[in-house]
Each structure stands twice: as C-alpha cells, then as structure tokens.
Amino acid sequence: MAPPGTDTEEVPAPPADGSGPPPTPTPASASASPPARPRKLRALLIGCVIAVALAVFLFVGLGTSSNSGSGSGPVVGVGDQAPGFSLPSLTGGTPVNLDALGPNRHRPVVLNFFASWCIPCQKETPLLARTAAAEQAKGSPVQFVGVDVAETASDGLAFVQKSGITYPVGSDTDLRVTSVLYGLNAQPNTFFIDASGQVIGHVIGGVTAPVLTRWLHRLAGSSG
Question: How many whole angstroms separate alpha carbon 192 and alpha carbon 183?
C-alpha cells in the first residue's frame, strides 16, 4: 500500500506460462563504443600541434627572407659612414669602387643590394634602372651603384641587362661586402648615402617610386 498522496500505477505481472513480450535487451554497442570526449580531445591536441608547427615554420621562413640583420658583420646604420669597398664589375672593366664613385667626387649615392633570384628585386630593379637614367639625363649629382649578391656573373649580367641597368654594378659572389661589411642577410636593401659618405637612409625590402623620389630630393640637397 502506497503512502497517502502518492500516485501509483499497478504493473501487471507477466503470465505464468511465459507468454507475453520478452524483456527489452540492452544494446551491446552502447557499452563497447569508446566515449566521444577522448576522441574530441585527441583531435584538438593534434590540431594544436599542427598549428604550432605551422607558426614556427612561418616565423623562421619569413624571418630569413625579410630581416636584414644577423649577417656576419654589424648592420650599417643611419648616421654611420658607409664602408668603402671595391668589387669586380659585373659587366667587366674598371672595378666598382664606392668611394671613387661617391664621396671622393662629393656625390651622393644610392647603393642597392640585389640578386636575380630575389623576387622583390625583380620588381624593384627596373624601377631603379629607369630612375637612374632619368636622373642622369637631367644632370642630377646622385650616383647609383649596385651590388649583385651571391650568384654567378652570367646570371647577374643577364638580370642587369634585362632590367635596363646602366650604372656600375659590382659582383659580390662571396658576400664579403654584403654580409661582412654591411651585415646583410637578405635582399633587396638600399642605402642612401650623402655626399660626405654618411648613411642618411636605409630601406629594407623593395623601394617604391614615391619613397625613391623623396630620398632623391634629400640626396640632391646634400650635394650642395
């Protein structure tokens, strides 16, 4: 007998002869299948590992292609005297001597480090070539100088000719100027050097036309 106030329902007993519906079996798969939570956790951990590995790869990859430090020498900074050098001319003839082309003649210099295998250089170098020709045509005192970095003379020469460069270009196959003197480990890099030989600007990566025009105005003013 149930306590007062409690609703009850009588469940009829199964027939004595065993007839009637059989008891509902418990599915075996319910106890055999693995819990969903561990599988989700494992997938999450694998995703995190992949994300971390990708981040490290991008950091290292981008760092080595865009940074200008970590060369074997100190990076030449703004305000420093540009280290003088002499390199074999990529086109043959007189060696390319920075001091002879610039400070010794009291001429400001646009010094560009590049290579044919450098993707940003493939866009920047024709711009420098056109600008240098235009500056020369109007009698500008600014001298452009190029340094072809870490490649064969034949590859560098083909790139220079394709880009339309007519200014002096030195060949730095062993990186003694690029890395040891200027501390660079990536291209392109462009230094703007006034008539006294002092670095007044440094652009890491490709130079755009507006930036180049602005620096040329400053260099022209430094030669007076």
Answer: 16
What tokens appear for 206 in the block? 């490709």
- Sort residue 38 into left (φ over 0), alpha (ψ -120 to 50) or beta: alpha
Look at residue 203 and give its three-state secondary structure: strand
Whether the predicted pLDDT of 53 surpasses 70: no
Residue-wise pLDDT tens digits, 201-220: 999 999 999 999 999 999 98
Range of the domain at 170: 86-222
Of all helices (H) and strands (E), which one includes residue 73?
none
The CATH number linked to 137 is 3.40.30.10
Q: Is residue 116 part of a domain?
A: yes
Query: How many structural domains compose the chain?
Result: 1
Q: Whole-angstrom Cα distance, residue 134 to residue 204? A: 23
Averaged over 146-169, what is the pLDDT?
A: 97
At residue 74, the pLDDT reads: 77
Instruction: Identify the helix (H) or strand (E) that includes residue 71.
Output: none
Name the pTM for this structure. 0.69
What pLDDT does 57 receive? 35
Furthest-apart CA pair in the chain: how many Å?
121
8 A C-beta contact, residue 184 and residue 167:
no
Sign of CA dihedral 92, 96, 102, 103: negative
Token pair listed for 71: 């060369």
| The token pair that represents 149 in the structure block | 């970095």
| Mean of pLDDT values over 168-191 | 96
The dihedral sign for the CA sequence 15, 18, 20, 26: positive
Q: Is 6 a member of any domain?
A: no
Q: Which amino acid is at 156?
A: G
